[in-house]
Amino acid sequence: MTILHIDSSARVAGSVTRDLTARIVAKLGGDVIRRDLKDALPQITEAWVGANFTPADERDDVQRDLLALSDRLVEELKAADTIVIGLPLYNFGVPAALKAWIDLIARAGVTFRYTENGPVGLLNGKRAILAVSTGGVPVGSDVDFATAYMRQVLGFVGITDVELVAADQVVANGASAIAAAHTAIDRLAA
């Protein structure tokens, strides 16, 4: 099994999601592709969008260079059987670094395609595990805009087997929230 291990927390020391993703990856075992988003990815630009919508065989060197990082990120996704994503909630949503990753991997004709019946994901048969941590927001509540969004994005590219490991309301529940997440990790199927 190949695991794509993605951390998106801006924090390195003391990050709950980094601890959870490391525990999940250790539990699952296998080959690991590591992607740490602490050093933010670039935002997409007008030139990037133009390169993306230019047919691959018509792109010039500048366009190929603009898409090189996106191509690497997509190849990491394609190579993985399981994607483990650290998902701290920042202001009710996903960290900006994770949103940049999403913008770089969601590519028409590459990770999804348009049909007469709507978009169809091209990354089928993969599993995703979201290691979620919140300070005060209950996971799945009306103000948790991150977990449903991530399920939508992953499903959009064809990854519909999505599991949550949650340490929610860590500020209020502290050690018990983290212990519950550790128990959920112990119960994960390899």
Q: Could you name the CATH homologous superfamily?
A: Flavodoxin domain
Task: Kindly identify the CATH topology.
Answer: Rossmann fold
Give a count of the beta strands, DSSP E runs of length 2 or more.
Answer: 7
What's the helical proportion of residues?
40-55%
Uncertain residue segments: none
Q: What does this entry look like structurally?
A:
The chain has helices at 16-28, 46-52, 61-79, 96-105, 147-156, 170-186, and strands spanning 2-7, 31-36, 82-88, 112-115, 118-121, 127-133, 161-167. The chain is an alpha/beta fold and 190 residues long. The strands form 2 sheets. Strands 2-1-3-6-7 form a 5-stranded parallel beta sheet, with helices on both faces. A two-stranded antiparallel sheet has the order 4-5. Helix 1 packs parallel to helix 6 and helix 2 crosses helix 3 (61-79). The model has no long low-confidence stretch (mean pLDDT 96).
